[in-house]
Design brief:
The chain is an alpha/beta fold. The chain has helices spanning 7-30, 39-52, 115-129, 152-158, 225-235, 238-242, 281-301, 321-335, 354-357, 392-404; strands at 55-60, 65-70, 82-88, 139-144, 174-187, 191-193, 196-199, 201-210, 214-215, 250-259, 265-266, 269-278, 305-312, 317-319, 340-342, 362-370.
Length: 407
């Protein structure tokens, strides 16, 4: 067992574990599971934790969420709040086109967002930390289901994953939490983050545009919901272009349109689905108000009616200033300042890591995946995407250093 957390010993431990971690990551990749169905993944995680002798508790968030706990090894650390490290485990409903030997064995499901890599990194951090004798902080490991739209993080929090023994969790209550995401546009060996807003809030909508169907040859006898829906799709873009300042961030994307049964029939209704992303609570409210007003009035102007279902989903992922400064300092010392990027702007993706930040100081960071010298690299949610195994050591090292640096 290593008695001190110096850089050389950590790197040596990580190098020793790396072949196994790659095998575990590729096993996860070959057996992807959708949100709240991560049964096999959860079994593998529990088996790994049991083999390490790490206390853990399963059954969170509809059954597949897991937390594990590693106490501090120093007398003064026994009463400290735990440092939590989080990974998400779920896959996406996408047909894989990578062609790798360990490609998905489940048609229509794949790890297109790198959660297989995140889970492997957290297991790797647990393996390495279990072999370090001098651990000044207790560590809580959060293996979370259903990040992809299921808000598994919100459930983990509600069920006490951060509250320690007395609140439904394990060990000491969590004092801060850190999470990462593999990032294909960031160079391998780099990490990136920023204080304040890191990712956007997420609101999802369904618009049923209801009209009057009829024969395509006699549109004047119908109220065409396809025409109305087309104008709605165009009109809601004015939220970003005409309702908010040019330096603010609002995105309104219509991503699904369903209508019709034949090329000579005007249907009676059209279904639109999409998402709205913002970075500030006031803009989130404004975007919702304008969306309803524009969609409803535009449909009405075409003789139709818009019935809107609005789902308020993930809040803004807000990085705590002190936790982010700590992460940046650790990353610069570990990787060198040239490999640490402070992002100028947030990204408009959404993350349910945001829910943890409502309970304890949190920091979310990106882990570079793009190989050096490669300009065209598959990005997240594409069928060609595969987590880069060469990023595993950097991810494990940063997670270990975060757990070992005095909180």
């Amino acid at each position: 067992m290593t008695t001190m957390a110096d850089a050389a010993s950590l790197k040596s431990l990580i190098a020793h574990e790396l072949p196994d971690l790659i095998a575990v990551r590729r096993d996860f990749h070959a057996h992807p599971e959708l949100s709240f169905d991560e049964k096999r993944t959860a079994e593998v995680v529990q088996r790994e934790l049991a083999a390490m002798g790490i206390a853990h508790k399963a059954g969170y968030a509809k059954g597949t969420g897991i937390i594990a706990y590693m106490p501090a090894t120093t007398a003064d650390g026994a009463s400290r709040p735990a440092v939590a490290l989080r990974a998400d485990m779920d896959a996406l409903p996408i047909t894989e086109l990578t062609g790798v030997s360990y490609a998905s064995t489940r048609p229509g499901v794949m790890h297109a967002c790198g959660h297989d890599g995140h889970t492997a990194i957290l297991l790797g951090a647990a393996r390495v930390l279990s072999k370090v004798a001098h651990r000044p902080n207790p560590v809580t490991f959060v293996f979370q289901p259903a990040e992809e739209g299921g808000a598994g993080g919100e459930m983990m929090c509600a069920e006490g994953a951060l509250r320690g023994d007395s609140g439904g969790g394990l060990g000491n209550p969590v004092g801060s939490i850190y999470g990462l995401h593999g990032w294909p546009t960031l160079q391998l060996g780099q990490v990136a983050t920023r204080p304040g807003p890191m990712l956007a809030s997420v609101d999802d909508f369904i618009v049923e545009v209801e009209g009057v169907g009829g024969h395509a040859a006699y549109p004047h006898l119908a109220a065409d919901p396809i025409l109305a829906a087309a104008h709605v799709v165009t009109a809601v873009q004015s939220i970003a272009s005409r309702n908010v300042g040019p330096l603010e961030s609002v995105i309104c994307s219509v991503c699904m349109i369903h209508a019709g049964t034949a090329n000579n029939i005007i249907p009676g209704s059209v279904r639109l689905e999409g998402t709205v992303r913002t970075l500030k609570p006031a803009l989130r409210l404004l975007a919702r108000e304008r969306f309803f007003a524009i969609a409803e009035s535009t449909a009405r102007a075409h003789g139709c009616r818009a019935k809107i279902t609005w789902h308020e989903s993930y809040p803004v992922t807000q990085n705590d200033a002190q936790a982010t400064a700590r992460l940046l300092d650790i990353a610069r010392r570990t990787l060198g300042p040239g490999r640490v990027v402070v992002l100028e702007h947030p990204t408009m993706g959404g993350e349910d890591f945001s829910y943890y930040g409502a309970h304890v100081p949190s920091c979310f960071f990106f882990l570079g995946l793009r190989p050096n010298g490669v300009s065209d690299y598959p990005t997240l949610h594409q069928p060609e995407f595969d987590f880069n195994d060469d990023a595993l050591p950097t991810g494990v090292e940063i997670m270990c250093e975060v757990a070992l640096a005095r909180a």
